[in-house]
């Protein structure tokens, strides 16, 4: 069997969640890696949309930021940022929002703003919201990808940058948020999905070589485990080749 890293397993698992023909609002970093892997592999008709106004971007390497010229050079169209948000995102025209996080809680709320309880004097001030709150609110569904530890998977985020499921099922509807919110969380250990009754994230898959106790120990709350827990299929040689080619092109 081909050797691979936990990060490669995470990227491959995240890419597999994107179907051919979908439209995806892509965050920079791990989400962009997964989305570009999907488009180069099983989903050639995946439409990548970046916050800078690039629609249908087809980068030959992983972009450094939403302002990377590679996105504009390879896009089907480049429109203004207000048009991306007002015409494409807010009316619910985008299938999936693909986001990262610094902190994620049991109901899929995302923090990318501050670490620590004091907003004015935080332990760490993070890059901030960008377009993530709108993406989390208005895309038909949201996928989140991040490495798992008790530092990132917390009982309650220090700051709600992007709304997930609030305090449980029904909060999004009460606030009038049109999208379904986070439907999938992909980590370097496994996959989580919201419980249909409570919206609390539940472990549904573990990656090869990972046991449940390892995932539970890396989670900052009492993690629920699905009764029909399965193991994620290992990356194929083709998936790893595409992923590694992308990363070499970006080096």
From TrEMBL:
SMART domains referenced in this protein's UniProt entry, alphabetically: CoA_trans (SM00882)
Domain of life: Bacteria
Keyword annotations of the record: Transferase
InterPro entries per record: CoA_trans_fam_I, NagB/RpiA_transferase-like
GO molecular function, one term: transferase activity
Pfam families: CoA_trans
Family named by the database record: Belongs to the 3-oxoacid CoA-transferase subunit B family.
Protein name: 3-oxoadipate--succinyl-CoA transferase subunit B
Organism: Amycolatopsis oliviviridis
Gene: gctB
């Amino acid at each position: 069997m081909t050797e691979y890293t936990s990060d490669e397993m995470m990227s491959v698992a995240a890419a597999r969640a994107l179907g051919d023909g979908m439209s995806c609002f892509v965050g920079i970093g791990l989400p962009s890696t997964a989305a570009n892997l999907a488009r180069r592999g099983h989903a050639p008709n995946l439409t990548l949309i970046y916050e800078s106004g690039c629609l249908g971007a087809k980068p030959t390497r992983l972009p450094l930021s939403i302002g990377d010229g590679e996105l504009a050079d390879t896009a089907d169209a480049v429109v203004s940022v207000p048009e991306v948000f007002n015409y494409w995102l807010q009316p619910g025209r985008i299938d999936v929002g693909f986001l990262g996080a610094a902190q994620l809680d049991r109901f899929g709320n995302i923090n990318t703003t501050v670490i620590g309880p004091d907003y004015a004097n935080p332990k760490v001030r993070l890059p901030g919201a960008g377009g993530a709150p709108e993406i989390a609110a208005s895309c038909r569904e949201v996928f989140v990808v991040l490495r798992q530890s008790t530092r990132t998977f917390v009982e309650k985020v220090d700051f709600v940058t992007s709304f997930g499921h609030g305090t449980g099922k029904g909060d999004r509807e009460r606030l009038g948020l049109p999208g379904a919110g986070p439907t999938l969380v992909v980590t370097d250990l496994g996959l989580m999905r919201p419980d249909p009754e409570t919206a609390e994230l539940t472990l549904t898959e573990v990656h090869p070589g990972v046991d449940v106790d390892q995932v539970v120990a890396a989670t900052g709350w009492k993690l629920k485990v699905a009764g029909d827990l399965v193991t994620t299929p290992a990356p194929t040689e083709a998936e790893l080749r595409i992923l590694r080619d992308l990363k070499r092109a970006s080096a």
